[in-house]
Amino acid sequence: xxxxxxxxxxxxxxxxxxxxxxxxxxxxxxxxxxxxxxxxxxxxxxxxxxxxxxxxxxxxxxxxxxxxxxxxxxxxxxxxxxxxxxxxxxxxxxxxxxxxxxxxxxxxxxxxxxxxxxxxxxxxxxxxxxxxxxxxxxxxxxxxxxxxxxxxxxxxxxxxxxxxxxxxxxxxxxxxxxxxxxxxxxxxxxxxxxxxxxxxxxxxxxxxxxxxxxxxxxxxxxxxxxxxxxxxxxxxxxxxxxxxxxxxxxxxxxxxxxxxxxxxxxxxxxxxxxxxxxxxxxxxxxxxxxxxxxxxxxxxxxxxxxxxxxxxxxxxxxx
Amino acid sequence: xxxxxxxxxxxxxxxxxxxxxxxxxxxxxxxxxxxxxxxxxxxxxxxxxxxxxxxxxxxxxxxxxxxxxxxxxxxxxxxxxxxxxxxxxxxxxxxxxxxxxxxxxxxxxxxxxxxxxxxxxxxxxxxxxxxxxxxxxxxxxxxxxxxxxxxxxxxxxxxxxxxxxxxxxxxxxxxxxxxxxxxxxxxxxxxxxxxxxxxxxxxxxxxxxxxxxxxxxxxxxxxxxxxxxxxxxxxxxxxxxxxxxxxxxxxxxxxxxxxxxxxxxxxxxxxxxxxxxxxxxxxxxxxxxxxxxxxxxxxxxxxxxxxxxxxxxxxxxxxxxxxxxxxxxxxxx
Amino acid sequence: xxxxxxxxxxxxxxxxxxxxxxxxxxxxxxxxxxxxxxxxxxxxxxxxxxxxxxxxxxxxxxxxxxxxxxxxxxxxxxxxxxxxxxxxxxxxxxxxxxxxxxxxxxxxxxxxxxxxxxxxxxxxxxxxxxxxxxxxxxxxxxxxxxxxxxxxxxxxxxxxxxxxxxxxxxxxxxxxxxxxxxxxxxxxxxxxxxxxxxxxxxxxxxxxxxxxxxxxxxxxxxxxxxxxxxxxxxxxxxxxxxxxxxxxxxxxxxxxxxxxxxxxxxxxxxxxxxxxxxxxxxxxxxxxxxxxxxxxxxxxxxxxxxxxxxxxxxxxxxxxxxxxxxxxxxxxxxxxxxxxxxxxxxxxxxxxxxxxxxxxxxxxxxxxxxxxxxxxxxxxxxxxxxxxxxxxxxxxxxxxxxxxxxxxxxxxxxxxxxxxxx
Lengths: 319, 333, 422
What we know:
The structure holds three protein chains of three kinds.
Chain A: H1 9-16, H2 22-40, H3 42-60, H4 95-131, H5 133-148, H6 151-161, H7 166-177, H8 179-193, H9 196-203, H10 208-216, H11 221-244, H12 255-264, H13 273-301, H14 311-318
Helix pairs in contact in A: 2-3, 3-4, 3-13, 4-5, 4-7, 4-8, 4-11, 4-12, 5-8, 6-7, 7-11, 9-10, 11-12, 11-13, 12-13
Chain B: H1 2-28, H2 33-42, H3 49-58, H4 67-79, H5 94-129, H6 134-148, H7 151-165, H8 187-224, H9 227-234, H10 239-251, H11 253-267, H12 271-277, H13 282-292, H14 295-323
Chain C: E1 24-35, E2 38-50, E3 55-59, H1 66-73, E4 81-90, H2 102-106, H3 111-124, E5 147-148, H4 154-160, E6 165-168, H5 172-175, H6 182-193, H7 199-213, H8 229-240, E7 247-251, H9 259-276, E8 279-284, H10 287-293, E9 296-301, E10 304-310, H11 311-316, H12 321-327, H13 368-372, E11 378-379, E12 388-389, H14 405-417
Parallel strand pairs in C: 3-8, 3-9, 6-7, 7-8
Antiparallel strand pairs in C: 1-2, 1-4, 4-5, 9-10, 10-12, 11-12
Helix pairs in contact in C: 6-7, 7-8, 8-9
């Protein structure tokens, strides 16, 4: 496979950095290839763009809000208009501002929780897969049990008992969702472990933790990234669901809490579509963006899934 | 059959974990649960001493038994089918309420999962077989998008459009029109049941169809490049036979695991559906119990849901072993 | 091999039977892979014939195009591979032609069931052994009626498949459906092509086939993963023989097995061939195998056939320098120790094949003409045999004195000793 010529300031900067440690160069190489892959697949580029927009809104959006999201006014249940782009709530709060404000919570708590779930599943998967023996047996049992217990009901029960707030929800989601990625990573670690370079590393006396994180792990980055994306989709959806059920702290703004208050105020029965449609659209869009990235990664990883060139066209081209 | 034995042991272990969690979660929560509860409940009305005593009993605070003894008493109670008494509907036993509601959940969920699994797999097989055809180019991206829509939002939207705007389906909730129809094998009753279950079932099918279809399609595409499919073609077998008996039969195996999990969610994850449509199933009961802080109910429902999920998973494991002969051989690590 | 020459028999001196036309004729076959980075000519201008009951060996390194050729004949190529030219003429058995070879009749093998099979075959084809359609007459070629396999409609192709043309894949583990029992994989072929057979007779036939290849009948209900490697390969052969095909294409059937099992399987194939008289196209990179097994051998390089000869001729006097190199890449069991060199260099990237003769960069004998002019497969003059070679060394226009085998030997030895340069 020919490598492409990449030029530009980023590449220069990378080239100037000395490569003292194999680990860093390898990670950099992998990250670079991810970047190349990202920009080569349309799906991944589109998905990344969508997610990027939300991140930007989350970061800078609240600086541009016209109204205080919590501020009530006399204009109850107003239709969308020039002053209130998405109308108002039952106590006159501007929904558009609420949406922007909520973006920060939803996106960053979502991404952050996704990262934590991925980290936990990585540790369990790598340790179990590498060490084998009773360590693996115990971890596998834990993983399987966690997989088989119903996640949403358990999350509801846990969130119901513990003090309300984003931290609780985050911990609850982590507790109920680490298992799937852990199992995937364990399988991958098992197969990588039996490869020769690992045996060579062990024979040369390399420290166990070094082997796990510097030799085995870099091979699995692709799966970890794909898993992170899938997990984050699920985290965002579950978060909104839990908020919607009233298990979050209603005073902390997020897309899910907007829906909660909308439901409480009977927005559905009252036909107040501008209240409950936009938050759902945001969640759907973020989810769709992440899904696109995921499918793009799938196609990159497995060439058979890529779009096949039309044989008719090919024949005409050859003629 | 060593395989079956291992699975039984595993599920026994999982059940034990569920029971233990159910026992310990309320007791691990910070603060004095009984006082907090009584405080919250007093807002709604007077809390009778017997209710307070039930509450205390729930948390094992009325006796001086050690935690271990309480634990065994709890398990003992469970084995007798005693899940405690509901606080909302005091003194009705939790088990009774669950018994009433679980039937509706199973009916709704069962129908929805079977339809969406069947349709999803079929679409997946066809779009993979006729890859690049019109059906494929339209259906695949559409499904991609559908799979990202949060379920409950889809449910709200459909309720809004079909019930509120178009008035085709009821808005108020319930499993049948309790005012005009009474239960029985009459056409009216069955028709009413269908009318009330249609929209929830439809949203369930739509939201999960995409998942089935896309995983089936991907699995099928990978399977189609296998040598045994090529050999089946070389043998001159009919298209249908190659597609189903050779390709699909192998490609569906990963989806079977998903099917197991889906059966589990019939009882567990339909929560959102029942909440949005106010459908009186076991999920709705859980939701109400959480809202009303009827902890006995919460624990009881959670346990039943978990048991149902585990049972379904076990059955699906057996189904998988039946379908894939390679699994029956004992594999060493 | 067919020439319009004199001898019409196989290498063991047995005469081919009465048919005056070959079984399969490949003419000017071209197969390309249409990749994003360019078109790759996997098979270029291939011509050969196959006689009834003949074993043709197809040898070459990886990437020489031999597997592509086999899949092209059976039309099992997947995109982006495409057949871009040529025809493949298949001559189905005429009514009244005997099914058995001269040899087989005299052996103790029961002739009855084979004759029954033939009658059933005629039935399945509607009593007409030609596969022609009254509405779409196929132009009659030469002295026999033939069909161009490349022009067949999918429905007709399906009828020919397995009935006349069966293929044994390289990896039996991958070629067997993991969720179907072996018996089921035999009987579904019977069900598809012999609708008149009942469930019982199908089962009987399956047991018969398993016994034929040396598998116990109680394995009928076993799954592929429950059989050993050798048994799986035998099962694949049994399935291939289910409808008593005329042509059996074997794509490296023993490469994945150890040598002991390899020998068993090969002996099996030879025995079955004697009994049932099907023709075989045997693809392998292992030339030593072909010398024993095949009647005729075709050696491929970079998508073209560079030499065709009977196995005796090839063994005694290989003509093409590449053939010589291949033959002498493995050491003899006896004789003095000698240094070996193999063939220097590696096969060309098919996207950029060297001009002229594709082998010239690696050939110890390359001269001027080799860089410019493509050598054509031609009979070696001054020989009575049917050996053909595509090399300028044997073309009087370019080279007056063709090298003898010992010349080839000396050059390669010199290479091995390192004293000669090209």
